[in-house]
TrEMBL record:
Its EC number is 1.1.1.37. One of its GO terms (cellular component) is mitochondrial matrix. GO terms for biological process: malate metabolic process; tricarboxylic acid cycle. It comes from Kazachstania africana (strain ATCC 22294 / BCRC 22015 / CBS 2517 / CECT 1963 / NBRC 1671 / NRRL Y-8276). This is Malate dehydrogenase. NAD(+) binds at G25, A26, C27, G28, G29, I30, G31, D51, N113, I136, S137, N138, M247. Substrate binds at R100, R106, N138, R172. GO terms for molecular function: L-malate dehydrogenase (NAD+) activity; mRNA binding. Pfam families: Ldh_1_C, Ldh_1_N.
Amino acid sequence: MSLPFLAKRTFSTSIPNLYKVTVLGACGGIGQPLSLLLKLNNKVTDLRLYDIKNAKGVATDLSHIPTASKVNGYSADENSGLANSLDSTDLIVIPAGIPRKPGMTRDDLFNINAKIVHDLAVASAKHAPNAAVLVISNPINSTVPIVAKVLQKNGTYNPKKLFGVTTLDSIRASTFISEIVKTDPTNEKVNIIGGHSGITIIPVLSQTSYYNRLSDDEKTNLINRIQFGGDEVVKAKNGAGSATLSMAYAGSRFANAVLDGFEGKQNVVEASFVDSPLFKDEGIDFFATNVTLGTDGIEKIHDFGELQPEEISLLENCKETLKKNIKKGYEFVESN
Ligand code: NAD
Ligand code: LMR
């Protein structure tokens, strides 16, 4: 037996980790580029795309890319399309729902998106009770509590596996701070806590090494730009939707981090809006901070650390809004 053959056999006996990933709302502005990035992720071997329109077309298109995963489309009008897209999947990403137009708040999306997310959560509870669920659909301060309540009602809620994707706030913060301090944005990290809408997004600038270098005006403007980065895109798109490409990147990065955790990689830390003990005694069941991801989902929820007085006051305002947003999500499930 030749040495090259032996070497080949040695490598081929390693067991690859195989993950099934389902994207619900896969054919929209976020869904398509997100699905593309997931098709390029070698941890994903079975990619399922579900949408109420065009899922077969997008899946067929992606299926021609030579990566080691199969990709299938499932449409709402086919028999059991949603159920089949979810069957025994490991990770569900939900970008289904309408985006903002100029002048709207994320909360204005609630009336339509709450029902969409509710119904997708019901299906997820039934057909993929063990999957991690990553919610992108806005307003995530309310849609994440909706998913939690639905899963609870169905007896499948695992708080370690439910995530509101706030990675877009983190990547914006890296970009915007690097523009001011003239560094490589890929090396910048700003801790973001709270929720995902306007004043509920709190960038903790005091925990960066630049805090003392920034003027008060620079700090105020930077915080405002991170909090309202979504509006910047909505305004620039002028009626054609909200962030899609940067969100697809953010969603793909977060999904990859969850899969890294599943695989047992150490020290995988990302911020996310999760079921958190931090303010439960104040009636706030969900809060975004850094979390460490592990083989069963969330391994550790990090405290937000020390805050400066102005950040404490941002936190107080955030909590007031967050509490209402979460309650609104819960009430929707109770009344449906
Ligand atoms: P889009 O309209 O381009 O796409 C939404 C997709 O969802 C469409 O393909 C539509 O057919 C599909 N859809 C609608 N109802 C569905 C259902 N019941 N089942 C399956 N699919 C369904 O919108 P978009 O720009 O991709 O944005 C999607 C959502 O993501 C919006 O709510 C937006 O506000 C939100 N968003 C969140 C973040 C974040 O940081 N979490 C960032 C950007 C956008
Ligand atoms: C964002 O932050 O870009 C998203 O939440 C979309 C939006 O409505 O701003």
